Protein 1
Amino acid sequence: MTRSDDPTGQTPRSSTDQQVRDVLGGAFHGEGFDHAALVAGAKGRAGRIRRRRAVTTAVAAAVVVPSLAGAGWILGNRLVGPGAEQVEVAVATRSQETTPPSGPDEVARTTGAPDGEAATRAIEAPPWQPVTPPDPVSVRPDNPDLPNRVQIPDPRPVGVDLLDALGPPQDAAAYPRTVPLSDFMAGGEGAAVEPHSARDWFFYDGTNEIDQDTVQLTVTAWDDSAAALAAIRDGGAGLTSVWVEEDLSGGVPEPLPWPGHDDADHLLVGRETELQSGDVQQVGGALVRQGDYLVGVTVRAAPGDGGPTTLDEAVEAAAEIAQKSAENLAYLGPENPPG
Amino acid sequence: MRLFGGAAQRAEAEAYVEQAMPRLVGLAFAMTGNKADAEDLVQDTLALVITKWSRVREAEHLDAYVRRTMVNRLSSVRRRRAASEVVSHDAVTAEWSVPSVPSPERGVTEREAVLALIRGLPDRQRAVVALRYYEDLPDREIARTLGCTEQAVRSAAHAALTRLRELVPQTIGEEAQR
């Protein structure tokens, strides 16, 4: 039967089916593809990707070392004599002009020390931010009716593969009524406890395509961040933010193990989300308390888009970004600088 | 995210690329309907495979993983092009009003005409058509490759074939039966 025989005017089903099969079944025959050249091309492109990564790392190192030295760091590496077990790295304090003001919950790192003594050194530079991250493409204006109480510093880490691949955030905002962990939480009703300040950054490719890798970094500032995170763990009772499932019913996701960070200040969650199209995305979420701040990161992974492909990888990426942002925040500000 | 490392793994990755190239360039051609785009797509896809080999090799279904990477790479390239290209209103509306079927009178073959029609399908439909008719995959495998349900695959295939049936001209249908 031809199209002219069909009262609908359409080409018959079997004819079209076979035509497509015939055409695509021999799709590349006779196209003259040079397989060897294509293999060489793929290897060449892979080499360029690796070199770009290497250059990014080298540039970060090249910037951070002079920056530290210029800021007054004196690296007094003192190698102890032969047979000594300890190699001590003495870090001089920065000059008064460049020392950031101490916050109420000053962060210190414990390093190995002889005789069981805990030697601490304050974090004196944002460890994951040797260069200033590029500005967001779009910044939503502040809401004059409900401004942030304090200015929250920008803790976006650089040198994270997923963020590097996504480029600068496409959107950013500063507004206190913000959920601490995007996608996993939503605004509730009838509760009074909420952040007094918040900032967020949204990384995506700039299109409305839903099937893509995205990262949302949110920093919320609280009067009592420890109580806030505890309430979040307990389901959000008393907070204006509540956990939501895909069907918007309430529920607390099962916390995932976070090796080295299984404590009250860290929370890791993940879930699969099925889109209306039937596509499945992996969503990882991480919350880290840093002083008066909660750093929330949600990674939404579209498999094969170049970033994470499994739930574990999405969760791992969220954890990496949240932890590095929190470590940057430890340097970047006192938790409640004057607004 | 882990970076690729180790000469042995690199050799393993490159061996995979050499072995998979003929089949994957065909799939890329089926998805793009264009030689230059196919060459670009397959090289981009396999470059990612090489650089992420330590992760890729752990995939339960290696070929499905690579095919999925290609499908997403295709969508992502098209998104970027769509975001950067400036297209006039006239050009867009002209495309709506005139089906993009080259006419046989202009000496265009049936094969080229069908490829042109497939090229005009939305990404997902085109990927489903390529995976079903070029790779000859069952719906379950296509669903795994695209990260969607079998129902979504069947729905996309149905929509694609319906669209093609509407557009494939009679002359091409007749030619196909010779």
Protein 2
Amino acid sequence: MKRLVFALAALLSPALAHAANDVALTSAVFVEKTVLANGQQKIVLEEPSLVVPGDKLVFVLNYRNRGATPATDFVVTNPMPGAVAFQSSPDQAAVVSIDGGRSWGTLSSLKVKESDGTVRGARPEDVTHVRWTFAKAIPAGQGGKLSFRGVVR
Amino acid sequence: MQHISGVGARIIAGAALGLASPAIAGGTTAGTRIDNQATASYDGPGGTVTVPSNTVSLTVDELLDVTVVSADPGDVQAIPGSADRVLTFTVTNTGNGDEAFGLASAGTLGGDDFDPAVTAIVLDSNGNGAYDAGVDTVYVAGGNDPLLAPDASVTVFLLSTIPGGAGDGHRGRAQLSAEASTGSGAPGASFAGQGQGGGNAIVGATGADADASGFYAVSAATVGFVKSATVADPFGGTSAVPGSVITYSLVATVSGTGTLGNLAIADAIPAGSSYRPGTLTLQGAALTDAADGDAGELASGAIAVRLGNVAGGQVRTVTFQVQVD
């Protein structure tokens, strides 16, 4: 329904084709539940009706270039909600920050300096931001999906 | 079809950032909102454009969890027939919301030798971890259910009367249970709209209902008392004739696992005889005849010796002599 409205808006407002918001980014969240189906455990994604600490969440970001020209240097940044600990992103090249977005890298490349001076490898729960940097432009009319997993602290 | 490049830089962070939500055992506090919004930026025809996504919001629901553990280091010693014997428990809210807990006790249980009669559940209202009669508040179901913040604990006492017939060395079990007042049941059961902060409440892994047991161990003691006499007559024999000296030996043997308090021995000087001054002994050591600082004396024609507290397995021997008139 929402997509239909966007499409109509694009059709009805050709003058806005070059306007700022011709890439759409939508955010969704699902809860990962293990259900028993036909005697077998199955992992399903559900709309979050109940969320408690320890629940696994999957955040999904859909992007689409609704404009007429390619979008270059496309970067998507998602700050972690405070009550969610980052787990992983299936997108191998996603980078993360553990210092509020000042510096970025793969999780294994980041180090945390503890208050007592010792240095340890960053852990998923240290992540404050997730970022995807696209090497290639998004052609007009193209889109895709990004996702990452977290667990409710 | 994604075109993503990673940034391979190695970075030493200055310090780990503090967590936005407090790290408590029960997890994020119920009612906390999880808002997620991403931002995209790209270069379009008109320059760099920044686009926010919609914000998706979740509210963390309340997890109902509780633990009860015995806080006694071991069996609580008690003597048969005694009242207000105290078992100590700790009730902890291991959920993530403020929750009141209903308490219940049971004394008629299996796995023991006798049934303690639980007479009261008492809340440690002054928080010192020890039962203070008349100070700590007696629990009334539904009246003063302890309200605990996430991770908070309350010390709870069970007061019991030990049956008079409980034998030495026997153990009696009593149990305290605590149940979330919002509800309990199978893990995963939910109570719509009843969670802290307006969300739902969900039964956690503990079933929101927990119990623990403590034991009373009866330590009784009994005393066996044996009196014997040896006679020495003036002629080297053992006849009781005027002038004979009779040595009385009073042996108190305490048995059992308990202790007898303020055990005392008294024995009248037999008619027709006279106490021989200075002959009173306890465990072979002389006691003066006067009522003074030591444990015994001669008073009103009888010897009296105070043995104090004597534990099971110990023996006390008192001797004194009389002369036949």
